[in-house]
């Protein structure tokens, strides 16, 4: 029984990174909620360190910066690039806060730091976006080029159309997220005023919808042989299938909870 449970946990960690990361990070933030609320600047700095090192490495070309595979900072920097490690789970946690029962003590602790988590999420999201946009020329060439260009920059076929469409959609997502992220900082919030700030933040629902579409297009495209992103190795068909299932589970459950809460309210 214990071995079966351990094998199941190993499967979750290896193949269901999104769900595993959401659960682990939610637990950590619940425990640290009071500390984060009291010292937000310290946590902003901690989460900014991998992003700063990544940017320095990109500017200086020094491959040694954070490159150690055995160091914690090197691991975190690599996870900043992959959405399932930090950025996607953070967005999911922030998203779910508005759909879960406000009277729940754990939800209360998270709601207490929702603004801070929105700011924290920006550091891994912007690094992930930087990396993806850096290769966006391939998606542009896919749609604008000849058949030879299409074969060079992405696989041909319907799967490639979906995957490359997702990368182009990512440009709009980055623009929208950046606006939402910048306005989450207290100084900007105060200058905008409560009414204007709230109107801007309502665009987060559009971002959530785009995030769902972006994720589905990438993984369905990858499943159909159109590339998509992945870490390589293993059964990629299984990885894409599990990712599609996880994303659908997250967003469908969110939609149900959100509609139920709106109906009660």
What is the number of strand segments? 0
Structural class assignment? mainly alpha
User: What is the string of SSEs from the N terminus onward?
Assistant: HHHHHHHHHHHHHHH
Strand content: under 5%
Rg is 19 Å
Overall mean pLDDT score? 82
Q: How would you describe the oligomerization state of the chains in this entry?
A: single chain
Task: Please give the alpha-carbon distance between the first and last residues.
Answer: 44 Å
The parts where pLDDT drops under 50 for at least 5 residues are: none
* Major sheet characteristics: none
Helix content: over 70%
Principal-axes shape call: globular
Please give the count of helices.
15
Structural write-up:
The protein is mostly helical and 265 residues long. 79% of the residues lie in helices and 0% in strands. It is built from 15 helices and no strands. The protein has helices at residues 2-15, 17-31, 33-38, 40-60, 72-81, 87-97, 105-111, 114-134, 136-144, 147-153, 158-182, 186-192, 194-201, 204-223, 236-264. The protein is globular. The relative contact order is 0.10.
Q: What brief labels describe this structure?
A:
mainly alpha, 15 helices, 265 residues
Entry summary:
By secondary structure, the chain is mainly α. 79% of the residues lie in helices and 0% in strands.
